[in-house]
Design a protein that fits this description.
Blueprint lengths: L1 H20 L3 E3 L6 E3 H17 L4 E4 L13 E9 L1 H6 L6 E8 L2 E9 L4 E6 L4 E3 L2 E2 L12 E3 L18 E3 L4 H10 L4 E4 L3 E2 H13 L3 E3 L14 E2 L2 E4 L1 H10 L15
Parallel strand pairs: 3-4, 10-11, 10-12
Antiparallel strand pairs: 1-2, 4-5, 5-6, 6-7, 7-8, 8-9, 12-16, 13-15, 14-16
Helix pairs in contact: 1-2, 4-5
Pfam family, one: Inositol_P
Protein name: 3'(2'),5'-bisphosphate nucleotidase CysQ
Keywords: Magnesium, Metal-binding
Length: 266
């Protein structure tokens, strides 16, 4: 975790410097959204720092071609250099983050989510709890779904996703999935969910933060999250305190159609 913290803080300075001098923006192939020179610079520096420190670890990152060799590694770095690139481009300093995680045999063991513009650094190591800027954080223990504060995009509330009426919850949104999970870990929101397929690099770090803060984190059907898959997509994510999480799953339709397209980048 100490290695991830040091790396996250260093690349935070890189991202802010790129933003200050003006971003170079291009579009990814296949409609996967924009990428900036900051995304690429952050990815390059993280690869340099982390692989130098742990040369025997595999690597999975949004901004680097996937290498199947990672599947043979016990430990793997799973990285999103900038989660919430569109918000980063737009100048919304509350909604983008660096997301860094280490997995061992498919399970996240250490994680950092850093919002450099807010100087908010969330960190967790498995079995050691979660912190925000060094102070312990806890997810809420709210049990009732009605009125709960949810972080989710509008399509998640489509009636087709639910058994019976759509729950009457307080709807909120943040572009970065890593930040949504961190906000549940912090207890600022009661739950987050995304019901479409989700890339591992968007989820890995925030999932451990939420778990170590006392939340239950699963895929959309209640299944466990496993990482470093050959195709690194998860079947959605639901995170909340145990009682609320159970209520959410009891209301979601497990047979609702999945989006047939890969998830678009935030």
């Amino acid at each position: 975790m100490a290695l991830l913290v040091e790396a996250a803080r260093e690349v935070g300075e890189i991202a802010l410097a790129c933003k200050a001098r003006g971003l170079e923006i291009t579009e990814k192939a296949d409609g996967q959204g924009p990428v900036t020179d900051a995304d690429l610079a952050v990815d390059a520096r993280l690869h340099e720092i982390l692989r130098a420190a742990r040369p025997g670890y595999g690597w999975l990152s949004e901004e680097r071609p996937d290498d199947a060799a990672r599947l043979a590694h016990e430990h793997v770095f799973i990285i999103d250099p900038i989660d919430g690139t569109r918000a980063f481009i737009a100048g919304d300093n509350t909604a983008w983050a660096h997301s860094l995680a280490v997995t061992r045999n498919g399970v996240v063991t250490a994680a950092v989510v850093f919002l450099p513009a807010k100087d908010s650094l969330y960190a967790a190591a498995r079995g050691s709890g979660a912190t925000l800027n060094g102070a312990p954080i806890r997810a809420t223990t709210r049990a009732g779904i009605s009125g709960a504060k949810f972080l989710a995009a509008k399509p998640n509330y489509a009636p087709a996703n639910w058994l019976g009426p759509v729950p009457d919850v307080a709807r909120h949104y943040r572009p970065s999935l890593a930040y949504r999970l961190s906000s549940v870990a912090e207890g600022r929101f009661d739950a987050m969910m995304t019901l479409r397929p989700s890339w591992e690099w968007d989820i890995a770090a925030g999932a451990l933060l939420a778990e170590e803060a006392g939340a239950t984190v699963t895929d959309r059907t209640g299944g466990p999250l496993r990482f470093n898959a050959p195709r690194p997509l998860l079947d959605g994510v639901v995170a909340a305190g145990a009682a609320l999480h159970a209520q959410i799953l009891s209301r979601l339709d497990p047979d609702a159609p999945r989006d047939s397209l890969p998830p678009l980048r935030d």
